[in-house]
Amino acid sequence: MSTYLIQNVSVLGGEPQDLLLVDGVVADASATPAEGAQVVDGTGLIALPGLVDLHTHLREPGREDAETVESGTAAAARGGFTAVHAMANTDPVADTAGVVEQVWRLGREAGHCDVFPVGAVTVGLAGERLAELGAMADSAARVRVFSDDGKCVHDAVLMRRALEYVKAFDGVVAQHAQEPRLTEGAQMNEGELSGRLGLAGWPAVAEEAIIARDVLLAEHVGSRLHVCHVSTAGSVELIRWAKGKGVDVTAEVCPHHLLLTDELAATYDPIYKVNPPLRTARDVEALRAGLADGTIDIVATDHAPHPHEDKDCEWAAAAFGMLGLETALSIVQETMVDPGLLDWAGVADRMSSAPARIGRLDDHGRGLEVGAPAHVVLYDPSVRRTVDPAGSASLSRNTPYRGMELPGRVVATFLRGVPTVLDGELV
Amino acid sequence: MCAQERPPTQAGAHSEPPPGRTVLDERDIARALTRISHEILERNKGGRDLVLLGIPSRGVPLAHRIAERIAAVEGYAVPVGSLDVTMYRDDLRLKPARALMRTDIPSDGIDDRVVVLVDDVLFSGRTIRAALDALNDVGRPSAVRLAVLVDRGHRELPIRADFVGKNLPTSLVERVQVRVADTDGVDAVTISDGSDGSDGEAQA
Amino acid sequence: MKRHLLSAGDLTRDDAELILSTAAELRDLADRPIKKLPALRGRTVVNLFFEDSTRTRISFEAAAKRLSADVINFAAKGSSVSKGESLKDTALTLEAMGADAVVVRHGASGAPHRLAHSGWVRSSVVNAGDGTHEHPTQALLDAFTMWRHLGQSRPGGLEGRRVAIVGDVLHSRVARSNALLLQTLGAEVTLVAPPTLLPVGVETWPVETSYDIDRVLPGVDAVMMLRVQRERMNGGFFPTPREYSRRYGLDARRMAALQDHTIVMHPGPMVRGMEITADVADSERSVIVEQVTNGVAVRMAVLYLLLGGNESGA
Fold first, then answer.
1. Is C21 on the interface with B (CB under 8 A)?
2. What three-state secondary structure class fits A100?
3. Domain annotation covers residue C314
4. Which fold has domain B21-192?
5. Which of A253, A332, B142, C64 has a Cα-to-Cα distance from B34 of 20 to 30 A?
6. Where are the domains of chain B?
7. Do A201 and C132 touch (CB under 8 A)?
8. Whole-angstrom Cα distance, residue C99 to residue C121?
9. Which among B2, B87, B99 has the least Cβ separation from residue C37?
10. Domains, chain A, with CATH or none
11. What is the per-residue pLDDT across B136-175, written as a single tens digit (0 to 9) for each?
């Protein structure tokens, strides 16, 4: 196996030191002779544990024109991720052991990062009856996260059963909180702007009502609950309240919800159309505060590739979603680190340890201590770059940050001690 | 779209002395209009079938003044109106869309009448060409005549005036500006070398 | 004014009054023997209608033809699946045909905005109604009608005039455009509707709102009734059509509460007996038929001012 010596690198933003990766494990740089090691100059770089995304759409099987496991995981590696959770809303839906094993195997073959399939909660995401959750959990893919993401498990009884059932294998239901009746035809955050633009409103309460119900259900049945892409100030408040009561709930926020606001809808450019929608500046502020104080546990990308034609049209006809893997760390720096809301150790927690914990991953999110698996990101926070969609490793180009200047750059990513990205390029 | 040539306003116009050299003053203009009025009547053998159509903006008050003089001589009113030629101009596409000015055809129309077009300055002849086209869409006069206060030459089309207040030889760079009391607060025709930045002469 | 007419909110007061005064000149054309002007000779205007709207299309068609433009009618009623593709592909087709202006009616809010700003076409875009967003030429013809009746057709003529817009404001592009334009022209607008049919955030609009039509009617100079679309009747926005009519319909009894000079308007098509009774629609106060006539003059003014000059025009 390989040996890499990363010299003079700032681990989690601390004093520069050497970091030694031997045979896929972090070794003691001071004690172990680094003979034959390949040397990487880490001067000015920050070392973080490999990032873990709990919410990625890899589109395969079914929409290989938008993304494949190969291209999506390449984008993940370029964004500093060593593990991604592939959402279940593929075609066919990942609601059987067969589909999740296929995705898992494709991930292993691609080799850019580890792929952990998410299983659907209900058959065909239809919200009517439970999928074979146990079979997926027992499969080679070892599914622990279950979600109908894209659709809400809105039936209260079904949600209760799902929460209860996954306890048998320490799973978690990741809820896409969207009350369907309140969001029929909804296009953007409901507020003054939606009224002015004539776009059907997506009220915050449609998200908050489901979160409120689900935390009460989770408490009642003693299950753990994960809330996907929290987007409103009210949701943060509810989760804070639930955690205060001791409910076993975790929550994620997406980079775009930390940075962008609903004002962008005024362009009618569907590149800004996403589910849940971009919200107000007040919500953005609450989300940042929630992530800083731990109310929101993790950042998850909700990386949602779409082919050009699904965005190059009028707003109402366009698909929901935006790319996120390759820009996530930069946006977290921009919105959390640079304003002083979170330090690099905090980033490591929100983007590596905590998501790995929620996903029950043994081999990820274990930090950079000696003996931990050698999943490492080297990140240069001092440079600024202008986002060019054409430079993405994703098959799709629907980044809302096109032309925007963002801080930071992933220089290298190591998966089990082997670089998947070096000098910013895929290995 | 924005109005490049809005109708002149009266506000503030009274105090400004016209720039450039004055070639016709208030009295000269009055005399010229009187003479034009007589010539029209003479040529037309009376005013019974006349219709005076002023070309906005300054042709319109001039047409009214001619009508007053005819009425004073003949003892009856001659119909007066206005004919906006904006949409018929051949340079419509060369500038941003211009605001329209009033077209007001007397109620009895122009069919079988003698229409006298009245304008302030005759220059290239293009405005009158446009006016003839516009007239064509309004009706069929028995004859069309042209009266202008100033003919400054430099015709670009085979058009001439029947009644001229003053022939004013000019060079192409000079600006001829007609001011009338109704819109400008003062009656005067001035000529300038075009470098004083005074607003454009009636581009005729 | 800008190169496109997408929202009534894009118009400055000068722009709007220029359109109204131009329309006033053009309205007289209908009385002349030859109802045609040469201003847009050689220009091509495309009516691109993704939704059925015979009256709006005919109005634009008459306006363009009276200005001597070539008119191409393109009825592209897109299926819901391929709607996005067809907007872009249709736009590219029109561009290839050399359209100078595209008059677009589309079911999706913002579609004209996309057409104007996506780089698909270079022509001017006129919004002839998009989703529940705006319908600026309807607002202009409504303002023009009010201006003639209440404002002596003079600049500033609508200053301080009070207008009630009654009905389904939530789904009405006419109400949005009217609220913006009338505010620009100095009029005071009151939106009257049941709370379920007022948009969220309406309190930030430059208007008053009321749930009580009877309190509003005696004080206004014009009252505009909005159509209640059939699909709203089953949408739970109000209990029954009968209750709606009783609380928000304009009937003879309510008409009697209006001031003598107050005019009654409706953008059409009317649902007689629902938001307005037949005797009100046909009364002397009603200017509903005149609104149609004025529509042609206003659309001529818009097309002339957008296309009449050179394209680099300010």
1. yes
2. helix
3. no
4. Rossmann fold (3.40.50)
5. B142
6. 21-192
7. no
8. 9
9. B87
10. 3-46+373-426 (2.30.40.10), 50-358 (3.20.20.140)
11. 999 999 999 999 999 999 999 999 999 999 999 999 999 9
